[in-house]
């Protein structure tokens, strides 16, 4: 197993993407700790992992509360001895409108939320990883400078901001043996809300790929598990493109 005896903490672990990563990590032998604000979704993911023979624990944690995040992570490390993988898939509230139509306060609040939660969780993990001289900080979303579209509102701007944060962590933490990687996807069709109104968005992602395929949450989980493993040890300070070529970041 690629991740045997590893400890992974996933913030937003009850969601579609976080759940897919947690499932893939657990399938490769990791002990996963799912953190989020909704017990029912966290328990649903954990139950599926355990039913498949994996190890999963849950905790209700507000990832915008630094004290709560630190207390939870301290408890995880006390129990397991380390934190080897930290992933935060919590994103900003997406506002798909022309920038001129978005209220300034709404735009600023969304981007601030994304950066704040990422900063809180990565600071907490880095505190332990620096002591260990090892670990992986994994980010999700990525920056695709080659493709910009009207009407995307705050979405790509927020992801670009988080990617800038990841780059700064990379240069500061690399001397301590800590890796930083972003998974760049360009959109996961099976994470979209159901309904014909999303058909156009799904098709545009497929059409953008030279292979005419779209990445799924399972694809993200599989790549995340590889990157987090010893086989992926040379991958750091970069984005990993999980988009079937739709993105050029």
CATH architecture: 3-Layer(aba) Sandwich
Instruction: Give the percentage of residues in beta strands.
Output: 15-25%
CATH-wise, what's the superfamily? NAD(P)-binding Rossmann-like Domain
Mean pLDDT rating: 91
How many discrete structural domains? 1
H-E string: EHEHEHEHEHEHHE
Total helical elements: 7
Explain this structure:
There is one protein chain. This protein is α/β, with parallel strands linked by helices and 249 residues long. It has a single domain (7-241), classed as Rossmann fold, CATH 3.40.50. The chain is built from seven helices and seven strands; from the N terminus they run E-H-E-H-E-H-E-H-E-H-E-H-H-E. The protein has helices at 16-27, 39-51, 66-80, 104-132, 155-173, 199-208, 217-228; strands at 7-11, 31-36, 55-60, 85-88, 135-141, 178-184, 238-241. A seven-stranded parallel β-sheet has the order 3-2-1-4-5-6-7, with helices on both faces. Strand 5 (135-141), helix 5 (155-173) and strand 6 (178-184) form a beta-alpha-beta unit. The longest helix is centred in the middle third of the chain and has 29 residues, at 104-132. It is globular and about 50 Å long. Keywords: Oxidoreductase. It comes from Lentzea guizhouensis. One of its GO terms (molecular function) is oxidoreductase activity.
């Amino acid at each position: 197993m690629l991740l045997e005896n590893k400890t992974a903490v996933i913030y937003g672990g009850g969601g579609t993407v976080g759940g897919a990563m947690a499932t893939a990590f657990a399938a490769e032998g990791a002990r996963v700790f799912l953190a989020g604000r909704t017990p029912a979704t966290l328990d649903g993911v954990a139950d599926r992992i355990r039913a498949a023979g994996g190890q999963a624990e849950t905790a209700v944690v507000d990832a915008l509360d630094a004290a709560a995040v630190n207390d939870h992570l301290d408890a995880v490390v006390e129990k397991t001895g380390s934190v080897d993988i930290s992933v935060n898939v919590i994103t900003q509230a997406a506002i798909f409108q022309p920038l001129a139509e978005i209220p300034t306060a709404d735009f600023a609040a969304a981007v601030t939320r994304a950066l704040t939660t990422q900063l809180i969780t990565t600071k907490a993990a880095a505190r332990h990883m620096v002591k260990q001289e090892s670990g992986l900080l994994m980010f999700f979303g990525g920056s695709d400078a080659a493709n910009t579209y009207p009407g995307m509102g705050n979405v790509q701007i927020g992801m670009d901001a988080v990617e800038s944060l990841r780059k700064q962590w990379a240069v500061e933490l690399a001397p301590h043996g800590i890796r930083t990687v972003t998974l760049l996807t360009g959109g996961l069709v099976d994470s979209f809300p159901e309904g014909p109104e999303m058909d156009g968005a799904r098709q545009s992602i497929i059409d953008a790929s030279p292979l005419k395929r779209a990445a799924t949450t399972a694809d993200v989980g599989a790549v995340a598990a590889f990157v987090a493993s010893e086989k992926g040890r040379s991958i750091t300070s970069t984005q990993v493109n999980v988009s079937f070529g739709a993105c050029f970041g």
